[in-house]
Amino acid sequence: MGRGATLLTWRMTRPPLIQGSSKMTEKFVYAVLVVVFVTYARFVVLVVSDITNYLGIACLTVRKRDVNGVWRSAVGMKPSEK
């Protein structure tokens, strides 16, 4: 038997990493679910930001018009400016 046959035998006889038990499978499924949710949420935020920046509208932000009628961020405004 050569090295290739030994490696193949080892791969066929080793225990599975993810499906070794139902608890490990459950943890793996939940971990993948979290990764997919975070990735999708990031995608949605980036797409909405790109569209709103392109159109020049305020979405996902809080803005107020200043005295001159220009839209400004309301986050750093003083109470007298609001």
Give an overview in words.
The radius of gyration is 27 Å and the shape is rod-shaped. The protein has two helices and two strands; from the N terminus they run ααββ. With 82 residues, it is mainly α. β1 and β2 form a beta hairpin. The mean pLDDT is 80. It has a two-stranded antiparallel sheet with strand order 1-2.
Q: How would you spell out the order of helices and strands?
A: HHEE
Using only C-alpha atoms, the radius of gyration works out to: 27 Å
**Which range best describes the helical content: under 10%, 10-25%, 25-40%, 40-55%, 55-70% or over 70%?**
40-55%
Q: How many angstroms separate the termini?
A: 81 Å
Tally of helical runs = 2
Q: How much of the sequence is in beta strands? A: 5-15%
* Integer average pLDDT: 80
The biggest beta sheet, please? 2 strands, antiparallel
Number of strands: 2
Across the major sheet, the strand order is 1-2
List the keywords:
two-stranded antiparallel ribbon, mainly alpha, 82 residues
List the helices and strands and how they pair.
Layout: H1 3-13, H2 22-55, E1 63-65, E2 71-73
Antiparallel strand pairs: 1-2
How would you concisely characterize the structure shown here?
This protein has helices spanning 3-13, 22-55; strands at 63-65, 71-73. By secondary structure, it is mainly α. The radius of gyration is 27 Å and the shape is rod-shaped.
